[in-house]
Amino acid sequence: MRSWRDGVTARQRGSERKASRVSRSASIEIGKEDMHFSAAHFTIFSATERENLHGHDFFVAATVTGPVDDGGLCFDYNALKTRLRALCERLDETVLLPAESPHLGIDAQTDRVTVAFADERLAFLPRDVKILPVRNITVEELSAWFVAQLTADDGFLALPIDSLHLRVSSGPGQWAGTTWQQAA
Prior knowledge:
The chain is an alpha+beta fold. It has helices at residues 10-23, 77-91, 139-151, 154-157; strands at residues 25-30, 36-41, 54-67, 94-98, 104-108, 113-117, 120-124, 129-132, 163-171, 174-181. The longest helix is centred in the middle third of the chain and has 15 residues, at 77-91.
């Protein structure tokens, strides 16, 4: 019985393997238990309606796609995990406020942050607040914020990653994601 390998030299098999490695890519999902943050927020629905201030344990996961190198590795996963953990740490145990909401006024002073919504005023200590460049504090906006932070980082951009899909969860079964692709 003849094998498909009969008549194929070792050199040809090596060339075929090398060619397949060059064009091979992989998707890697990274979603560690410690990639989370606890934060308070309220979702704004209109100029007069918002949720009460409440908190979530938000979780972050990322799926990246990139070429597999000759060593059988896409990239050092720790480079992405370290960045995600640092971003989560920046948001942990804070009140998140959306700087770009048309319905919210934020007055940040040295001793307090005052938030104006409709006829309400909320006051917070500056150390407890993170003002994010988003329109609302939702999982949709948070996933886009994470992607914007990562793609503003030259170290991230230097990784051999073709695409990133980053998801944020505010509870079991409730995720939103944002996708980024490397420019061609």
